[in-house]
Predict the 3D structure of the following.
Amino acid sequence: YGIIEYFSEKFLITYLEKISEIVVNYINLNEKIRKNHVHNSAQLILKVLEKKHNKFENIAIEEVVSNLNRCLNTSGKYTINYQSFTLNSGNLKHSKICELFKQVNINIDSELSKCDHFHHVTSANKFQKVDDIVLRRNEIAHGTSNDIIDLLNTSQITDYIDFIEIYFTCIYKSLDKSLENAINKEKFLQLNPHPIELVKFRVFPELSVVGFYDAFDKNFEISDIIIIEDNTDNFTFVKILEVRNVGSTTDVTLKLELDS
């Protein structure tokens, strides 16, 4: 269980450290991270004031406030209160691990299901080994109603070790992919500090066409590159192959080179 808790927190904090190095201006961080940072920082201050948690005994309230103030009120270098994102990291069952990473807009459940090892596993309990380890840890720490603890045998322990290695390798890869997307987005923003954002559109996937409403004045040209961002912050760079105005309207359709 110690491995589960250690790597869950370590991966989350490291991700936040890396993303804050990549994204120059705090305002360009994912909105979910920014919202949770404010809430979590307030909760962290309360935890420090309680003086009941060894985990936070070396954290100074003044530093938490200073970091948050710098994030909200300056456009230069900033520091996230990383520890504030680990406040609820006890009894880390799979669902709790998912909640941890949802704070930074990472859907661990979805990302793990894409991994080769889990992709073809249809069972609703495919991550059950994580929950079982938590249960066994609690039984050892607090005892059971009948004082009987079901210990794993040697062969079972090997299976659990292999599972945990695969589990966290998949999480690592999903976080690494998210950081790569952040790098691409930051490069784009450095080159185009005031990008044109178009949110009213319709996709025709079978034709590789996207229709944009009220976009006649955007002056699209063949060979221009546009960037498609999905709701998980994934970026795709595509080339325009064809531009058409839609009748006498202000709408525009673009045929895209989606495999580029």
